[in-house]
Write a structure and sequence with these properties.
It is a single chain. This protein is mainly alpha-helical. 50% of the residues lie in helices and 4% in strands. The chain has six helices and two strands; from the N terminus they run ααββαααα. The chain has helices at 3-10, 14-23, 42-55, 59-63, 76-105, 115-126; strands at residues 30-32, 35-37. The protein has a two-stranded antiparallel ribbon. The radius of gyration is 25 Å and the shape is elongated.
Length: 157
């Protein structure tokens, strides 16, 4: 298949195919004029690369998943580590999502007066969003206390 057919069938732009070839992720089998030619198995390899990218692997990590003969040789421990990393990301994003949902319906006059929102800010600033145990659902929690309004201090002249 020439590069345009591979691009069409895989959905990967020709420029990306050329880049993948430069990185050693795929190999052309020849040329027809100026066009690179690829064997049909390049489509499966591109699908594996796409899956790796979706999972968050770098191109260098993906390149190490192929043996010198081009066949997949995937390190199962690396897959387990990436799955653990994805679990942490999911927890973080879930905590952020829950905080946003709360902020969207919070009765506090200002988000900065909402204890739940302030906790979310504190966790995000410290890098601990999503790393703490999950709190009970809002229906099982006691509602936030009425926020106290802090008055700005007056400047002393």
């Amino acid at each position: 298949m020439d590069i345009s057919e591979v691009a069409q069938r895989s959905g990967v732009p020709a420029s990306t195919l050329r880049f993948y070839e430069e990185k050693g992720l795929i190999v052309s089998v020849g040329r027809r004029g100026l066009r690179r030619l690829f064997s049909p198995d390049v489509l499966e390899r591109l699908a594996l690369i796409a899956l790796g990218r979706t999972a968050g692997f770098s191109l260098d990590e993906i390149a190490r998943m192929f043996a010198p003969d081009g066949l997949p040789q995937i390190d199962r421990k690396m897959l387990a580590r990436k799955a653990d990393e994805l679990d942490r990301t999911i927890r973080t994003l879930s905590a952020v999502r829950d905080g946003l949902r709360h902020a969207a319906v919070c009765p506090a006059p200002s988000h900065m007066e909402c204890p739940t929102f302030r906790r979310l800010l504190g966790m995000d600033a410290s890098g601990t969003v999503g790393t703490q145990d999950r709190k009970p659902s809002p229906a099982k929690r006691k509602p936030d206390k009425k926020p106290q309004v802090r008055r700005p201090r007056r400047a002393v002249a």
